[in-house]
């Protein structure tokens, strides 16, 4: 069985998953435990097309747009145009048939949209609006006037902004990092201050990282309607919360922009790398340069920052896919991290944002020497952290996402290998797994060793038929993306344990079954060369034993046994997939059979 590690309140447990270091791996659905998944439809975009698939991998619907798609609460598909998350200046809402219902194009030459966007309900406006991330151009003189170190060149400098537009495409609110900066080099500038005492602003002169093009490289954002706040994540290892409610004036864009640029727009919370505001140690190589420390840095290269939605386990907490780039771990790997920003050093929920350095840290020891990791500081505000036991099992250098599901599971998308899986923390198992078959070279049934993002997917989302976008739609399963019949592992396969081969045992098995699918009877036929103890077990798709069909010694030759689709109590089983396990001495064969009515 494949294994992962889960950390809940710093208690480590094992969990099954897929090891992605294989040179050859089949694509599409690889495993499904139907009894434990949040069963529904998975939406993702790849190569300019959005796909909605069922749990077996059948394509239910497609749209001719596919960058970073998601369904809205209004029942539409929202996505950027162009297929490149790093460069997007047009966004569209489509209906089920692919008709454009709304679109917005950023036409200002000094704003460059990228990576993420969100449709929200603005409570002050009483209507829905659209927010997106854009790099805003800065002149070199603006940078110097703000207090940037004059020893550096600031040609082409940019800082990220959050832009909000209404249904008519009018900018009604805008927040920019450049309006919330601090520096400790030039006392004559209004931005001068003590960095450690100014956590609500970004240091203009971070050592070794002067302001430049795409300086923050923010890649994800989210909106919390209850708090009326926005969170935005920088790839450099921090995310920031800003107050939208206190800086928005209905029907007055100019006042809204001024308030957003004022101290009311300073960060109300930040998490990830306290060394950036002189409240912690950065990652570093230690005196013995064969070892390193992550310092107090918690995330690096992270993506898909979000508030866990109301009504879901962990609601109100933050969750982020921590790619873990630039953490200085000797053996890097990715993590899913859940953060409660209200916890203090005693673990008490204060109901107010607590600066993470004030909450303090726990020291996490490596769970296994073969991980080749050093102990590290983990923020006491981290309440759940998920990682693979094998470092490379879902490691992704860029992109990726995580979604908390209503049953407590978490759907994960690891971009590098187009790898989706659903994690069930309560019983430490991976209950569904899928590999995107769409590659740079077309659809592949087998993925071979290749460079990262060969079959990459930026994010994936799970929805049920009750979602407004799917209500009333046929949701008829079509072919899989490869056109192949789904062939995946189920819990029954995990029960099989192949024994070491006994070289004194000359038993050979020639096995088949027919018809398959079947409605009344199916024949399980096999040939053995020598007398042997034979057992035939029938399991359902969830791994439950349905019937012990045979358990006896047989002579050599041909044999045939009929399963009449009845369980051990003589009742006919429901339609669906079943498995028979044929055991002959030390050999075991498992095959899938489908019962139809």
Number of structural units classed as domains: 3
What's the number of extended β-strand segments? 44
**Numbering strands along the chain, what is their spatial order in the largest sheet?**
2-1-29-26-25-24
How much β-strand is present in the residues?
A: 35-45%
Number of helices: 4
Give the radius of gyration.
27 Å
Word description of this protein:
This protein has 597 residues and is mostly beta strands. It folds into 3 domains: 1-58 and 299-488, no CATH class; 86-280, no CATH class; 491-595, Immunoglobulin-like (Sandwich), CATH 2.60.40. The strands form 13 sheets. Strands 2-1-29-26-25-24 form a 6-stranded antiparallel β-sheet, with no helix packed on it. A 5-stranded antiparallel β-sheet has the order 4-33-32-31-30, with no helix packed on it. It has a 4-stranded antiparallel β-sheet with strand order 7-6-5-37, with no helix packed on it.
Write the layout of secondary structure elements.
Blueprint: E1 4-8, E2 11-15, E3 24-26, E4 28-32, E5 41-46, E6 49-53, E7 59-63, E8 70-71, E9 77-80, E10 90-94, E11 100-105, E12 111-122, E13 127-137, H1 140-146, E14 158-165, E15 171-176, E16 181-182, E17 202-203, E18 218-224, E19 229-234, E20 238-243, H2 253-261, E21 269-271, E22 284-285, E23 292-293, E24 303-307, E25 318-322, E26 335-339, H3 356-359, E27 361-364, E28 376-379, E29 382-388, E30 401-404, E31 410-414, E32 419-424, E33 429-435, E34 438-439, E35 442-443, E36 446-448, E37 460-463, H4 491-494, E38 509-514, E39 522-528, E40 532-540, E41 545-554, E42 557-563, E43 576-584, E44 587-595
Parallel strand pairs: 16-17
Antiparallel strand pairs: 1-2, 1-29, 3-36, 4-33, 5-6, 5-37, 6-7, 8-9, 9-10, 10-11, 12-13, 13-14, 14-15, 18-19, 19-20, 20-21, 22-23, 24-25, 25-26, 26-29, 27-28, 30-31, 31-32, 32-33, 34-35, 38-39, 39-42, 40-41, 40-43, 43-44
């Amino acid at each position: 069985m494949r294994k992962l590690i889960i950390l809940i309140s710093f208690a480590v447990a094992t969990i099954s998953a897929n090891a992605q270091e294989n040179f050859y791996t089949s694509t599409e659905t690889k495993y499904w435990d139907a009894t434990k998944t949040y069963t529904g439809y998975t939406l993702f975009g790849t190569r300019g097309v959005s796909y909605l698939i069922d749990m077996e991998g059948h394509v239910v619907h497609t749209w001719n747009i596919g960058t970073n798609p998601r369904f809205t609460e209004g029942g539409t598909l929202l996505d950027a145009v162009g297929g490149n998350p790093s460069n997007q200046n047009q966004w569209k809402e489509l209906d089920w048939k692919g008709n454009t219902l709304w679109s917005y194009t950023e036409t200002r030459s000094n704003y460059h949209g990228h990576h993420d966007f969100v449709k929200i309900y603005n409570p002050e406006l009483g209507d829905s609006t659209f927010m997106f991330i854009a790099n805003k151009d800065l002149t070199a003189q603006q940078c110097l006037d703000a207090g940037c170190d004059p020893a550096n060149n600031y040609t082409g400098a940019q800082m990220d902004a959050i832009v909000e537009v209404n249904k008519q495409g009018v900018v009604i609110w805008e927040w920019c990092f450049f309006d919330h900066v601090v520096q400790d080099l030039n006392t004559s500038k209004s931005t001068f201050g003590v960095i450690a005492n100014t956590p609500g602003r970004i240091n203009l002169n971070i050592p070794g990282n002067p302001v430049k093009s795409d300086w923050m490289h923010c890649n994800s954002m989210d909106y919390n309607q209850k708090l009326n706040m926005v969170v935005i994540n920088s790839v450099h290892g921090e995310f920031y919360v800003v107050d939208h409610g206190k800086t928005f004036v209905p029907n007055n864009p100019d006042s809204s922009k001024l308030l957003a640029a004022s101290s009311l727009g300073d960060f109300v919370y930040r998490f990830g790398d306290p060394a950036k505001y002189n409240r912690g140690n950065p990652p570093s190589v230690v005196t013995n340069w064969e070892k390193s420390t992550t310092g107090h840095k918690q995330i690096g290269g992270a993506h898909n920052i979000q508030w866990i939605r109301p009504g879901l386990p962990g609601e109100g907490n933050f969750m982020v896919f921590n790619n873990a780039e630039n953490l200085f771990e000797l053996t890097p790997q990715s993590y899913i991290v859940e953060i409660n920003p209200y916890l203090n050093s005693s673990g008490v929920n204060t109901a107010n944002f607590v600066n993470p350095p004030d909450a303090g840290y726990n020291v996490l020891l490596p769970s296994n020497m073969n991980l080749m990791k050093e102990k590290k500081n983990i923020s006491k505000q981290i309440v759940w952290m998920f990682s693979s036991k094998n470092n490379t099992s879902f490691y992704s250098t860029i992109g990726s996402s995580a979604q908390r599901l209503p049953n407590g599971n978490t759907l994960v998308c690891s971009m590098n290998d187009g790898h989706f899986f659903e994690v069930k923390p309560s019983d430490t198992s991976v209950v569904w797994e899928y590999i995107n078959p769409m590659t740079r070279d077309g659809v592949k049934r087998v993925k071979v060793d290749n460079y990262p993002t060969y079959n990459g997917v930026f994010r994936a989302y799970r929805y049920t038929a009750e979602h407004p976008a799917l209500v009333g739609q046929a949701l008829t399963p079509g072919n899989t993306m490869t056109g192949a019949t789904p062939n995946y592992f189920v819990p029954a396969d995990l029960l099989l344990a192949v024994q070491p081969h006994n070289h004194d045992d000359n038993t050979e098995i020639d096995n088949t079954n027919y018809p398959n699918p079947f409605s009344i009877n199916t024949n399980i036929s096999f040939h053995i060369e020598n007398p042997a103890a034979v057992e035939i077990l029938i399991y359902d798709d969830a791994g439950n034993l349905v019937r012990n069909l045979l358990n006896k010694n047989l002579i050599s030759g041909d044999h045939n046994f009929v399963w009449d689709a009845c369980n051990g109590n003589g009742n006919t089983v429901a339609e669906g997939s079943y498995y028979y396990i044929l055991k002959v001495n030390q050999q075991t064969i498992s095959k899938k059979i489908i019962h139809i009515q």
